[in-house]
Every structure is written in C-alpha cells, then in structure tokens.
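User: Can you predict the 3D structure for this chain?
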Amino acid sequence: MTGDIRSSSRESSKEDDGSKGEKLALTIGTFDGVHIGHQLLLGVTRDIANVRGITSAAYTYELPPKRYLSESGPALVMDPQSKLEYLKQFVEKAIVGNFHKVKDFPPERFVEEILVDKLDVDAVVVGDDWRFGRNRTGSYRDLENMSDGRFTVHPQRQLTKDGRPVSSTWIREALADGNVKLSRELLGRYPTYSGEVVRGNQVGSDIGFPTANISLDRRVVLPKRGNYAAFAHIDGNKVKGAVHIGNRPTFGGDENHQVEVHLFNFDKELYEERIKVQLVHYLSRNREYSGKEELKRAIKNHVDEARKVLDEVSSVN
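Assistant: Here is the predicted structure, written as structure tokens:
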C-alpha cells in the first residue's frame, strides 16, 4: 500500500506518488492555519534542508484527523487550498497523504512504507507532543528508535504565548470573539479568508455601496459577526475595503452566514475570481436598521472608520 500521496510544490502542482528521487527534510503535522507554532517547525525543516543540500517538505492531510473521524470535528481555521499555498511559502514541497489509507497503520508500518520507502526522508521535524500510527500510539521517541540510523529526528517544544500553547483551538476562540489583534499574533499575519466571488442580491449596489460576495468553504470557521476594516488581495494588488459578516438582518436575514466586502476606489468585475480578504480590525457588531436610508448612513460610517484604520495601518507598514 502506498498511502496515496499527492504532492504540491513550487515548481509543479501535478500529482506525485511520493516515489524516491530526492532526499527530504520533512515536517509532519495538521498545520491548520499555518500559525506561528507551525511556522517554527517549517523554519527548522527549511534550515536543515539548506544545511544538508536537500529538499524541504511538509507532510499533511487535507483535513485534520478529527474531521475524518467525526462529522462534528472542529471547524477549519484555513481551507485546504490556502493551507497548501501557505505551506509552500516556507518549504519547497507540500505532500498530502491519504488519511483513510494510513489511519490504521501501526507506527512501524508508517515509518517503513511512508517515511522510508516512499518519501526517503533524511530528517524529520515534529512537535514534541506529536503522535502517529493507529490510535496515536507512536511518539517522537518511538520514531527515533525506528529510524535505525536512516534519518535524524528533531523534536521541537510547542510554542507558547503568555503561558498558553499556540494552537488552532485558541485561534478559533479569538476569531469567535472578534479579536483580530490576538488572531494576528497567533497566526503571524492578519486572519485571511479566500474564496470565489459570486453574485449576491445587489442590496449594496442599490444603496451606493456595491460589495463582492465571497463563497467560502463551509468547513472554515468564520469570525464574530459584524463589520471589519480589511485588505483584499486581487491580481497581486492590495485593495482597502470594509467587510460585513452576517446575515443581513435589516432585510429579514439570510439562512447563510454571508461574507461581503466593499472595495474602496475599485470598480473591476470580479465574478468567479478567487480573492483573499485579510481582516485588520473589528469595527462594530451587526444590528437591524429601520430601512435602506438608515442602513446607508450606517454603512457610510463603517466605511469612513475602515478608511481611517487602514490609512493608519498603511502608514505604519
């Protein structure tokens, strides 16, 4: 059994069965959010690869294991496509394993069939709390014992902030509170959402504030409902804007949790394009207004406040 490995690299996005051909410095993990703790592992992996003259890589699964084992698993901090894109900002290859095919491998089989036979690892970097194999029975110490001189193992202590381990769970909590500042500190960047622009009901356009409605992966956690100052990344350009997250209570409320961004000084057609939106600052909660005119005044206030925040951020950066 091969483990059905796919690979995405800077040079190619073609499917790769992980066959031998190049020695790897490999880090292994879920990497949901690619937060600062993950970045520590990725940086160590890259440094080892540079010293040894080999390829740096990350081995992950499309979803966190808990999502495969239960439909009620935790919401994602980042959609799978974005996760691979961010991983490749730190290492040369992002390898996606098939969780269903390896979940019942005992630790020894995972080491022999995946790490040695398929990936030809020269070094493995993991957190010191990392577990692997069926029922999570293997630890980094077991990995060291099984390496048998064929590769080195580099356990890293879990990164903490203010005495608490940095984790995707903590980031989800910060987002739920609308705490963009803490989310940014834990992620090492502004919280970012990516998706395709789809047609909405044109309410914004009707009152002079057209918005790009973004279709997001429904498995991704959304932040606290409300209004945010934000940057949108479109065709390599950073555009200032104001984001609304909610269900339009003034117009009866939609069933879905909407994400829409009003872009400043921008009038290009964006339908079916994939854009990224970075939340910079939480402005205010959602509320129901008496009608379009009151809503229009409120949106203008949100836009004015967002401009002020983003101008200040731009002047600092």
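The radius of gyration is 22 Å. The CA atoms of residues 2 and 61 lie 15 Å apart.
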